[in-house]
Amino acid sequence: MKSLQVVQISDSIPVSRIVSLGDSGIYRLYGQDFRFVEQVLFNDIDAESFAIETRTTILATLPFPRSDLQDILVLSSRSTMTERSLVRPSLRGGSVEGLTRLVQRFTKMLLQTPGSDIFAPDAGGGLYDLVGQVVSSTAASDLVARHNLSVSRTAEQIQALQARSDRYVPAAERLLGAEVLTVDFDRNTSTLRSRVRLRSAAGEALLNLATD
């Protein structure tokens, strides 16, 4: 089955080294395989320009001084559904099916706030409600618990919907379970990061989630 695409799954390619090319603001990034790179971000800001130089190097222009650089994210157009894969909103249109459709459905349901859908008021994992909350040092464990509850709630809801469906659900889209592999709260950035494994009847996918 197919659905309208609203999320994009891309692999994050590790960068091993960054070298300045004079005073031009252009830098050479080194990594393992940059052949399918479609986006380079510095501190979550798009590079002013970038070009794939070789399989292992990219030339990119920093949008700010090198001293302000804290994070580099190089995204590939290909996805391996592993710990390197990131789920992001997408406005490209098109359609998705199979395991990608299951990932998209789980992500949407996980973020949905219960009560936001008048036709299904109980639907939603409620993870989006955690965004922007002020968390004390003593409340971090409660935040982790709420995250885990959101994941289990979402899995149960999708499984119940699929069990009631009269239509055939392909094996790759039939959810067998969701397992939280890791979840950590960074007090310095107020970011909750987790890895969730989705198991379908035809394979597995890993979700890397970050909630600020």
Description of the molecule:
This protein has 212 residues and is α+β, with helices and mostly antiparallel strands. It has 2 domains: 66 residues; 118 residues, Roll (Nuclear Transport Factor 2, Chain: A). The protein contains 2 helices and 14 strands, in the order βββββββββββααβββ. The protein has a 5-stranded antiparallel sheet. A 4-stranded antiparallel sheet has the order 3-4-8-7, with no helix packed on it. It has a 3-stranded antiparallel sheet with strand order 12-13-14, with helices on one face. The longest helix is centred in the last third of the chain and has 25 residues.
Would you summarize the structure shown here?
With 212 residues, this protein is an alpha+beta fold. Helix content is 18%, strand content 40%. A hairpin with a 2-residue loop joins strand 7 and strand 8.
- The percent of residues in helical segments reads 10-25%
Summed up, the helix count is 2
Q: What's the order of the H and E elements?
A: EEEEEEEEEEEHHEEE
List unreliable stretches of 5+ residues: none
Q: Cα-atom Rg, whole angstroms?
A: 19 Å
